[in-house]
Amino acid sequence: MAEKGKAVEKEKKIQKSSFYEVDNDKVKRKNLFCPKCGAGVFMAAHKDRNTCGKCGFTQWKNK
Fold it and tell me: Which amino acid positions bind Zn(2+), per UniProt (predicted)?
């Protein structure tokens, strides 16, 4: 019988947050917060709109 390979632990890479940006020791938020849900709930940035995934609120971007 052939032996099965041992489980190998993969190195975990530190994931860079896509919601924040750091400039000179200051944190800047990239996306907007939802006005209905409040602070802490980000809105998804689409090509023509911003949408909240929690409550479904949509803000259309001006052209």
Answer: 34, 37, 52, 55
